[in-house]
Major facilitator superfamily (MFS) profile domain-containing protein (Bellilinea caldifistulae), 434 residues
Amino acid sequence: MPTTRRERWAWYFYDFGNSAYAAVVLLAVYSAYFQGQVVGGSQGTRLWGISVGIAMLIVAVLSPILGTLADFSASKKRFLLFFTTLSVIFTAALFFVMPGDIFAGMLFFILAETGYRAAQVFYNALLPEIAAPEEMGKVSGNGWAFGSLGGIVCLLIVLALIMSIGGTTIVRFSFLITAVFYLISSIPLFLWLRERAEPQPLRQGEGYIGVAFRRLSDTFRAVRQYREFIKFIIAFLIYNDGIMMALNFAAIIGAVLFGMTQQQLIVFMIIIQITSVAGAYVFGILADRWSSKRSLIVSLAIMIGAVVWMVFVQNVTVFFVIGAIAGFALTGVQSVSRTLVGQFAPEEKSAEFYGFFEVGGRTSSFIGPAVYGFIAAEAALILGGRGMDTINAEQTGIRIAIGSIVAFLLFGLVLLLKIRQPETEEIGQSSASL
């Protein structure tokens, strides 16, 4: 059954909502609030990295099993609903996190982040159902661009409240606003988008969990058939480390290196979201006109240049410029990576392949932030022990840790150069042969 215009817009609107979560909780507000007020200092940076890492590890374990189960039972939307609800509830619960509430601040964030990331497995897996292989780049890019607009709108609402009223209570109230924004934006997908896959019958005496592990085992045994996909996942695991480190610590970098206020951080993230819209749209078009691989290489190269520049920047205005460039590049990386998975995946294994994609993404998201947080905290501790004052030690530790972002991005790019992207005809043949 052909996809309707309304179904695609429903899919775009979900991105509109979950991008608001990413913009407010991950990027602009909660990360800085947790690091600076809930915990404080380099310990806040370290615990933020651990919190992100725990959530990513949970999703990395669950994703391939649940993705396989969703394919078999044709229940992508059901899983999407469950994890979206989880994220919305605990995003709202962040309102109750006060300065000093370290355990609650970590727990509520981990649950909200787990829901947000796990939901993306099933949201992404719906892409092959609403777009043919030759148009996935454009549809994926449109979704990411429209989603970035959602982040901008929500940040503008939050910024207006913080500037007009101010105070910690308004900062915390922004998490309730984000939860409602996320919830409302997700409703059209559940009402309008029809899941086209049909559930497969169970064998006699077999349960769904057994099916999930059997299908995973079959995929692993057939790994030669998907070796280019596996090579891509390894490359993605590494360069996505760099992307996640840059995203998860952007607000902390701005606050520590330049003493940026909450209002400045929100404006900074709005700029990133605006350039993200352009990046997602441009790289989505390039993915279809050139190839997804070439588009991805260009976006990664731009991202590397921006992060290298960040190591040396001393001026907050230049930091804003770097953020704009990085925003343009990073959504290209994320959107085109999502497109490539859809092009590698046989139609009936889309959620399974996106589950493995999430394993790569969430494993890297666990490793990257933990590495960054450890390097920044340990460097600050060592430098402080050698007589450097606390502020300079923390700032230098941040700059040293930024170098690790460059290393991950560069190594991932090198591996990406060795991957052969499937042609549209090959995708169809692979799907038909399974």
Q: What stands out?
A: Residues 350-385 form the longest helix (36 residues). The chain has one domain: 7-194+213-433.
